[in-house]
Amino acid sequence: MITIALSKGRIFQETLPLLAAAGITPNEDPEKSRKLIIGTNKPDVRLIIIRATDVPTYVQHGAADLGIAGKDVLIEHGGEGLYQPLDLKIARCKMMVAAHPAFDYEQAVRQGARLRVATKYLNTAREYFSAKGVHVDLIKLYGSMELAPLVKLADVIVDLVSSGSTLKANGLVSVAEIMDISSRLVVNQASLKLKRAEIQPLLDTFELAIK
Ligand code: ATP
Ligand code: MG
């Protein structure tokens, strides 16, 4: 049995064509079903549907053989015990620093001010600002980061941006780009050794399908 860990939403939707290329069709739509384990047309392949941030954990411990997770999530997890053979180039966006236009980010950085940074991505934010020599107080949030500068919880946020419409809707602007984000295939290292005959053809098919 091969278990593939996926999150609902954009990652599931953008993974469907890759699964199809490998001849795999889920038996149910996770957006409609409440089931956490979904079978496929292949009796030896099943999907588990979990939170995006939990995908590396299930794969690391071998509860799933494969998974698909954003680079953002993998950086925060640390990638321990994971083999990361492929950038699937799906769920693409950018990790950005954003602020209210009334906050002069450039000046704050130039003057060596201590920045209050609200984010879900503590490791990414810590590394980025430390490399720039900017001192920060990190404030951990779990979502809706755009609110933080509006109610003066923070000077800036570090968040994912694709179209920019959420920033715009909340009157924020991006002030710096941290990195490009896309989703990667992650594989449990022991699974790759023990189930190579099943897993390698999947990796090969995915690699062809993304080209
Ligand atoms: P939840 O929304 O359930 O709190 P989440 O925000 O981690 O969890 P998604 O919004 O489905 O889950 O994001 C899953 C992955 O998709 C993220 O880890 C990231 O790599 C990518 N992603 C997030 N936001 C965007 C976006 N606006 N455009 C493209 N990809 C994105
Ligand atoms: Mg989200």
Automatic annotation (TrEMBL):
It comes from the Bacteria. The keyword ATP-binding applies. It comes from Sulfuriferula nivalis. It is found in: Cytoplasm. It catalyses: 1-(5-phospho-beta-D-ribosyl)-ATP + diphosphate = 5-phospho-alpha-D-ribose 1-diphosphate + ATP. Pathway: Amino-acid biosynthesis; L-histidine biosynthesis; L-histidine from 5-phospho-alpha-D-ribose 1-diphosphate: step 1/9. GO terms for cellular component: cytoplasm. Residues 51-206 form the ATP phosphoribosyltransferase catalytic domain. Its EC number is 2.4.2.17. This is ATP phosphoribosyltransferase. Keywords: Amino-acid biosynthesis, ATP-binding, Cytoplasm, Glycosyltransferase, Histidine biosynthesis, Nucleotide-binding, Transferase. The keyword ATP-binding applies. Catalyzes the condensation of ATP and 5-phosphoribose 1-diphosphate to form N'-(5'-phosphoribosyl)-ATP (PR-ATP). Has a crucial role in the pathway because the rate of histidine biosynthesis seems to be controlled primarily by regulation of HisG enzymatic activity. GO terms for biological process: L-histidine biosynthetic process. GO terms for molecular function: ATP binding; ATP phosphoribosyltransferase activity. Heteromultimer composed of HisG and HisZ subunits. Belongs to the ATP phosphoribosyltransferase family. Short subfamily. Lacks the C-terminal regulatory region which is replaced by HisZ. Its main location: cytoplasm.
